[in-house]
Design goal:
The complex is a heterodimer of chains A (about 375) and B (about 350).
Chain A lengths: L12 H7 L10 E12 L2 E13 L4 E5 L6 H8 L7 E14 L2 E7 L5 H10 L1 E4 L13 H11 L5 H14 L4 H5 L8 H13 L5 E5 L7 H17 L3 E6 L2 H7 L2 E6 L2 E7 H6 L4 H8 L39 H5 L5 E2 L6 E2 L4 H7 L10
Parallel strand pairs in A: 3-8, 3-9, 6-7, 7-8
Antiparallel strand pairs in A: 1-2, 1-4, 4-5, 9-10, 10-12, 11-12
Helix pairs in contact in A: 4-5, 5-7
Chain B lengths: L15 H11 L1 H26 L4 H11 L4 H11 L8 H13 L15 H36 L4 H15 L2 H15 L22 H38 L2 H8 L4 H13 L1 H12 L1 H4 L1 H7 L4 H10 L3 H29 L11
Helix pairs in contact in B: 1-2, 2-16, 3-4, 6-7, 6-9, 6-16, 7-9, 8-9, 8-14, 9-11, 10-11, 12-16, 14-15, 15-16
Classes of the chains: A alpha/beta (about 375), B mainly alpha (about 350).
Amino acid sequence: MNQVAQQPETLQRQNQTLRADAPSTAAPTLSVKGLTISYQAKRGAVQAVRNVSFEVQRGEALALIGESGSGKTTMGLGMVRLLPSTATVSQGQMLYQRQLDGQDTNRVDVLQLKGRDLRQFRWKECAMVFQAALNAFNPVLRISDQFGDTARAHSYLQGKDLAERARQLFELVRLDPERVWRSYPHELSGGMRQRVLIALGLLLEPQLLILDEPTTALDILTQRNIMDVLKELRQRLDFSLLFISHDLSLAAELADRVATMYAGKLVEISDVYTTFKNPVHPYTIGLINAVPTLTAHRDHVASIPGSPPDLIDLPRGCKFHPRCPLATERCREEEPELVPSTDDTHWVACWNWEIARSQLSAGQKGTSA
Amino acid sequence: MSSGATVTPPKKTATKPAILLEKIATNFWLRTIVKKVFIVWVVVTLTFFIIRALPGNPVEIMVMSLMDSGLSSEEAYTRAASLLRIDLNAPLSEQYLDYMSNLLKGDLGDSYVLAINKPVTTLIAQRLPWTLFSVGTSLLISFVIGMFLGTLAAYRRNSLLDHALTNFGAAIESIPNTLTAIVLVLLLGVTWKVVPLNFMRGSLSPGIKPGFTVEFLIDLFKHYAVPGTVYVFSTLGGWMLAMRSSTISTLGDDYVTVARARGLPDLRIITAYVGRNASLPLITSLAISLGFVVGGSILIEYIFVYQGIGLLLSQAIGKRDYPVMQGILLVTTITVILSTALADLLYGWLDPRIRITGGGE
């Protein structure tokens, strides 16, 4: 949130109250502790998320990156408690810091919420912009009705006030309010629908916005546009962001901190600059080396050999060891825990991170992030 | 039309019929109407010849039944000829042209045998309301119950209730409605004596005049109850199974998950998000099945002697009453065409994605 002060733009009326006291609290908006989620499949339990802990600070943007099947989306769905019925959360806590008029009130464990409390938590406290935003809207209802539904469910503004609030949000996400408000979803393009969903996500001024691969289905120009909108929103409004993506460059643009996920576990977490300049986990290093840059020579673009492990039948020890160039006997037997590495903001789950830092990063050129 | 030698390009001055043709080709509604009229003509023509190709004509059938009652062959022929003042010896093409020209004037002809010299339109007008009432009401009842049970089964997917409902639905769907009718008559009327047998014959008690009187409505319902149950019973399973599978696929749609994430109340999600989208394909089949009201009722009306158009058709076929058969088949065709048109309109109204905008497609 360090850029906030530099923004001279006039702020939206609704958000002034929220913004005034941004630095006053220290408790994280969300703190996930030891979360473990598995799916029941015919062959056995799919361990999608294993003992994951992290915090999202107030106003912070945390990016969760990893390959497909690393458990990112399961994390996101778990956070709004929308996992399919085959999934079970076997352990963990998800502590959410409620706020009232900018002051911390009580903390709730999202996993314990039930019925009405859960319904109120969803969208009002934590909104989620889904991967498949193209089909995120009921095809037979106008956008205005879908905003109305959401507002009514949370006893929010109605009628003209709601339309006015929506108009401001549409302008924030660079949409033509007149056109969008009375439209049916099919009358809008994919990029427009994605932005409408972002506007809808911000409608109730949630503290936490989860973006699950928000640009995956879009072409490169629309993707650029959405990213610009998101960056601008981050500067203007005050909310925490959990950005789930497989795209490192997008994460670099938007996030304050980056958490790398591999086989259902966080393997490295640090601020965005450190992640890209001084990664210490062999997997993160591999991911960054796999991104082509403008300045680096083509030879330096390298993929990580092998493929992600089978989540039903995970290897012993460190789950990355079959693909790791530095794997030792210890890696094959014992799984490393996420511990501080170079300093206490940079955590890594690797026995040999010091070797990785000196050996693997050597060939790495700076990224254009 | 220019001769091959001229070099000048053909002028674009369209003649009157050409303008009309172009209008028909470009205007959606005009084109639709022309298509439907064409279908009606094809069906009328086909039925005209097919009916007459059936073995036995009205006179022969009547002679046969008269001979059964003891008359000699010659007596029967004279009797039949005096009763039926029809000439079936004219060439078929002439009869066809005659029929078509009358049809264009809105005249469906007079009955040959069933009600001699009574206009077919009057006969149909007397019988059609009964069928529309009995089958139409049952269809709506079964549709509503089926939608409800189907949604319930889909929401409780793979539960005991779901398995029970699905098997029950598949079972009743596979029982022929005539069998249901006979079993109900036997059980309710004969074995248990719950429903007096005279409520299972005819559509009204003798002496009761149609009108908005309590007496009429009660009698109407009493006669409707058993055949109505048969109709509901025989169609319920299909609606339920269709709604179940449609709801299950809708429940997997992203917007339902997003609606949950938006914190919407369950009732709103079930009705406006799941129900409305899941019922879209069913609404179409409902409208289409309205069109088959007439055809679907023949045997049931026969069993219950329900004075509807299906019974009239079976009587007309039995006696080869050509104009009546032809008239009922025409009505059936038109109801099917109208109901598919209704389905299109309904679908457009319910689903904004396929709404026709502007004058074109």
